[in-house]
Fold this protein.
Amino acid sequence: MNRSTVAVLALGLAVASLPAYSQDKPAPKPPMFATTQVEGTDNVYVYRYGNHQAMFVVTSDGVIATDPIGYGRP
């Protein structure tokens, strides 16, 4: 092989490998659990753990918490 052939092959390999480096990284996984305030409210929060969630409201008299139950299909 002469120098020009080697140069063309090297350039071709370099160009062929570019798409592998330009791909976006996968989105990071959300945390296993999180507590966030519901937008537009003062004291309403959502607690998430995995695929489960519950809500709670903080009042001057105490906290109101939900414990939703999922019903399976028959």
